[in-house]
Amino acid sequence: MCDVDVSHAEAVVSARPVGGGSYLNLSDLFVDVNLPPYVQDQLREHAII
Fold first, then answer.
1. What angle (nearest 5°) sits at the alpha carbon of residue 9, between those of residues 13 and 5?
2. How far apart are the C-alpha atoms of 15 and 45, rounded to whole Å?
3. Residue 33 DSSP label
4. Which branch of life, at top level (predicted)?
């Protein structure tokens, strides 16, 4: 777990259809989903794309 708040995780899941169902990299995700910098850092450290 990367301790991302539920509301931020839900925003990522909701944006997936916008990104065609998945993202090739986190930069594309961050364009579609406005996440605070600390959440972006958490995802950079722990997310698997």
1. 170
2. 20
3. S
4. Bacteria
Q: Helix, strand, coil proportions of the chain in percent (round to 5)? A: 55, 0, 45
* H, E, C per residue of 7-28: HHHHHHHHHCCCCCCCCCCHHH
Interatomic CA distance for residues 20 and 6, integer angstroms: 22
Residues 47 and 45: their CA atoms lie apart, in Å, by 6
pLDDT along the chain (49 residues), means of 10: 84 82 88 94 87
